[in-house]
Design a protein that fits this description.
By secondary structure, the chain is an alpha/beta fold. It folds into two domains: about 240 residues, Aspartate Aminotransferase, domain 2 (3-Layer(aba) Sandwich); about 120 residues, Aspartate Aminotransferase, domain 1 (Alpha-Beta Complex). The protein contains twelve helices and 15 strands. Helix 1 runs antiparallel to helix 8, helix 2 packs parallel to helix 8 and helix 3 crosses helix 6. It binds pyridoxal-5'-phosphate (PLP).
């Protein structure tokens, strides 16, 4: 059937929320406990249990979770933190929040992830941590990364896109010292805004738990439910207010139960796209990891500038006219004015990141799309020649 004359509007992402989330939030609202409380605790417990990690700590976003991780590791002025040059700006910003220096490493074009071969030349005596990013839901090559960094360098996973992803048989979130996830609505599961920090180490967990609540030595629960109403906390370190609300926690509990189904469905359609689009010679398609599991937060293609009949931007404009939303994968952060100027970086210092910035293209893949939507996307892409 020719679908090209049908008017369609296909968004790049759309969360799956329904009455179940509504009833869960309603329960919180009627309970009168709105800030971090029992729903957040339940969400944390379910998250830690699902991904077999000792500790999970709900926060206001992946960004604040990454900041909390760096702060708990006492990263500050004079320290360097290695990150990929192709990522969302938050991965770099959190390093500046601590007064430390982001050190960029170029990425692999095929995976969009940090290139382990290029890391060791960037390691110095000041390197305190590395933040590998599991971009678009594909885990960075953690074994290769571990081999090239000194043992004392801490690993913080930017798992913003990677809830439910696996590296070999290990869950994202359990692959480094600390990890941070995002529940922004462009992610597979959402709490509106929100994040989750995971770690195995109990001391680190306690430190982050305290820092999440202004650095207070006594938690809200202890103050409100304990037998000593006169207790005020002491503050012995600098903390933040990164607490998730119970309203978000209530949504998170329901969303987490949907995660496996949502990923399975996305994986099915990603495979289908790979099959249907394999003959489009100008379009590079995302690969599944040989071992492990892609979470398919986004389906990001590469428009080969040597082979494509028109530029990536013209293709995106054409698809937009046809009602199909697309987005560039993400940024080459070293090319953004803030970083370019502050660290005197040249665009060509990280050629693969620059190339991915210019030529990556996410096409719609989410759980609110119909078969007809998928067929339409393929048909329109194949009409470009
Ligand atoms: C790779 C990466 N890191 C961090 C973030 C920040 O997540 P949040 O919006 O929850 O702070 C994002 C968000 O898109 C991301 O894609």
């Amino acid at each position: 059937m020719n679908l090209s004359n049908t008017i369609r509007k296909i968004s790049i992402a759309q969360p799956v929320t329904d009455e179940e989330e509504w009833f869960s939030v309603k329960e919180s609202i009627l309970s009168g406990w709105l800030t971090q409380g029992p729903k957040v605790a339940e969400f944390e417990k379910a998250f830690a249990s699902k991904f077999t990690i000792n500790h999970a700590l709900a926060v206001t976003s992946c960004t604040t979770g990454l900041h909390l991780a760096l702060a708990a590791l006492d990263i500050g002025p004079g320290d360097e933190v290695i990150i990929p040059a192709f990522t969302w700006i938050a991965t770099a910003n959190v390093i500046l929040y601590c007064g430390a220096k982001p050190v960029f490493v170029d990425v692999e074009r095929e995976t969009f992830n940090i290139d382990p071969k290029l890391i060791s030349e960037k390691v110095t005596d000041n390197t305190k941590a590395i933040i590998p990013v599991h971009l678009f839901g594909l885990c960075a090559d953690m074994n290769a990364i571990r081999k090239v960094i000194p043992a004392h360098v801490k690993i913080i996973e930017d798992a913003a896109c990677a809830a439910g992803a696996k590296y070999n048989d290990q869950w994202a979130g359990s692959l480094g010292d600390i990890a941070s996830f995002s529940f922004h609505p462009r992610k597979i599961i959402t709490t509106g805004e929100g994040g989750m920090v995971t770690c195995e180490n109990h001391k680190l967990f306690e430190q982050m738990n305290q820092m999440r609540n202004h650095g207070a030595t006594v938690s809200e629960e202890q103050r409100h439910h304990g037998p000593k109403p006169y207790i005020l906390p002491d503050f012995n370190l600098l903390g933040f207010n990164y607490r998730m609300t119970d309203l978000q926690g209530a949504i998170g509990i329901v969303q987490l139960k949907k995660l496996d189904y949502l990923i399975d469905e996305r994986a099915k359609w990603a495979k289908w796209y790979n099959e249907q689009l394999k003959d489009v010679t100008w379009l590079g398609l995302p690969k599944e990891p040989e071992n492990g599991k892609h979470s398919w937060q986004s389906y990001v293609t590469y428009v080969n500038p040597e082979k494509a009949p028109i530029t990536r931007n013209k293709i995106m404009e054409f698809l937009q006219e046809k009602g199909i939303s697309t987005r560039p994968g993400t940024h080459a952060v070293h090319m953004l004015t803030l970083y370019k100027n502050r660290f005197n970086i040249k665009e060509n210092d990280f050629p693969a990141a620059k190339d991915c910035d210019a030529n990556s293209m996410a096409i719609p893949l989410h759980n609110m799309m119909t078969i007809k939507d998928y067929e339409y996307v393929v048909q329109i892409i194949k009409s470009i020649y």
